[in-house]
Amino acid sequence: MNQAHYTTTLASGSHWSLRLRKGTQMTLTDVEGGANIGMLFYNPDNLLERYNAPDTLKCQHTFKLTRGHCLYSDMGRIFASIVEDSLGWHETVCGNSHADQVTERWGARNYQNDHNDWHQNGHDAFLVELAKYGLGRADLAANLNLFSKVVTDADGNLQLVEDHNQPGSHISLRFEMDTLVLLHSCPHPLNRKLEYPASSVEISLAESEVVDEQDYCRNYRPENQRGFANNALYHLGQR
């Protein structure tokens, strides 16, 4: 990856958003270990186009996400490709934590009284960021939960794998089209730890390498080649 043009650190229970240009590479690094990053994508030029979790999974014949996988919109285009990954497993089926869950597990805290030690939840964190772009509750979609791994027990119940991500765990996304990125660092909805997580994540933005015909993500699945072709047609229409 080229030299980073921008780096910041997102504290636990925070949220962030930015319009990223095609050809940008975002690297997320778990600083203390145990972080969860909820993430959503929208087309900034057509906010009705957004990340589609079912299509992302079924077209690549997978339940988990890792290097090589592409992250699809509901128009069959690719928002981003996973070009680097130290973990091998990120989930996109469990959704967000909500205020009642967080209050039940860790107690009620608000920013007015507790400042940076408050207990934010993923659902409300996304709503705050969505409002900045004229979007709201109806615009929420199934989100990514980066750094988190879930498995099923003998009865088919989903369980979060604790200590899956250690300090320094990282993932890099290469954006294949202009994308409005929303993210939060709130707890995974299946997190059962005794204390509200206090894991920060570093965000680093740089220019990505040019995609060629031998690109790993492009050729990871035949479906991805069609996704890149859809992107090429879309960008022709923007000229």
Structure overview:
With 239 residues, this protein is of the alpha+beta class. It has helices spanning 53-58, 99-106, 111-114, 122-131, 222-238; strands at 6-10, 15-20, 24-30, 37-43, 46-50, 70-72, 78-85, 144-146, 150-152, 158-160, 170-175, 179-184, 201-207. A 6-stranded antiparallel β-sheet has the order 1-13-3-11-7-6. The two termini are 28 Å apart.
Contiguous uncertain segments of 5+ residues: none
Q: What's the average pLDDT?
A: 95
Helix content percent band? 10-25%
The SSE string, one letter per element, is EEEEEHEEHHHEEEEEEH
Task: Output the keywords.
single chain; 239 residues; six-stranded antiparallel sheet; 5 helices
Please give the structural blueprint.
Blueprint: E1 6-10, E2 15-20, E3 24-30, E4 37-43, E5 46-50, H1 53-58, E6 70-72, E7 78-85, H2 99-106, H3 111-114, H4 122-131, E8 144-146, E9 150-152, E10 158-160, E11 170-175, E12 179-184, E13 201-207, H5 222-238
Antiparallel strand pairs: 1-13, 2-12, 3-11, 3-13, 4-5, 4-8, 4-12, 6-7, 7-11, 9-10
